[in-house]
Amino acid sequence: MSRLYQHGTLAMLMGKQMQGTITVAELRQQGDTGIGTIDGLDGEVIILAGEVYQAQSDGQVNHITDPDTLLPFASVHFDAPTQKLPFSSVTFSNLSAQLKTAQLQQVFAAIKFHGDFSHMHVRIAPKQVPPYPSLLSVAENQPEFEAENISGTVVGYFAPQIFNGPTAAGWHVHFLSDDHQFAGHILDFSAEQVTGDLQIFDEFVQHLPIDNPDFRQMTLDFDGLIAGIEASEGGRK
């Protein structure tokens, strides 16, 4: 059995709940690979081989070593690949097409691959303070960064359309360069010399911060929720 563990929901972030509710130490018990964000929506998190990295909105990349660091939202799994990727070159726009034979439409899957990227385009959420805005309003003013001819690793997830809300339907992927100097939430890329794996999950665990009073009292405006999530993710599926 393979399991994808997710703490928090994207709908929760849309509902202005950005306070950290799980520690890095607790998250590592659930997986050694994944993505997320830090307390206050502070940047983009990439987890590889149990090591946690944070891309800040000024472009700096930090190695997070404090096990008590809090996160409001994260998805993790234990890396146990199902199959090798069937391509050696890929772009963000044709990623799903190149994986058509994997039949991902109705399943959760993780992707992790290394490559030489002729182009990498990312965005990084800036840190927010209470009272928190919605994820959509943050997404409207996020720093974006681009790099050419950079090597690194892409990691992230595919989720079925029916789960849009708890998470982001389609692809949600982050990037970390080999030198740990460039990272973020991917908006676009073009890669060559790709080597990596796909992992299909038969279990999706949704963990909620039930001991957090702000979460328990949250109300959601469902009008435009899905469109808002898609906009915050970059609008590309």
Please give a structural write-up.
The protein is mostly beta strands. The chain has one domain (3-233): 2-Layer Sandwich (60s Ribosomal Protein L30, Chain: A). It contains six helices and 15 strands. It has helices at 10-14, 24-28, 95-98, 135-139, 213-216, 225-232, and strands at 3-7, 22-23, 33-37, 44-48, 51-55, 61-64, 70-71, 73-77, 83-84, 89-91, 108-123, 144-159, 170-177, 183-201, 203-207. The protein has a seven-stranded mixed β-sheet with strand order 6-5-4-3-8-1-15. Strands 9, 10, 11, 12, 13 and 14 form a six-stranded antiparallel β-sheet that branches. It is globular and about 50 Å long. The protein starts with a strand and ends in a 5-residue tail after the last helix. The mean pLDDT is 94. This is Alpha-acetolactate decarboxylase. Its EC number is 4.1.1.5. Keywords: Acetoin biosynthesis, Decarboxylase, Lyase. It is an enzyme of class 4 (lyase). It catalyses: (2S)-2-acetolactate + H(+) = (R)-acetoin + CO2.
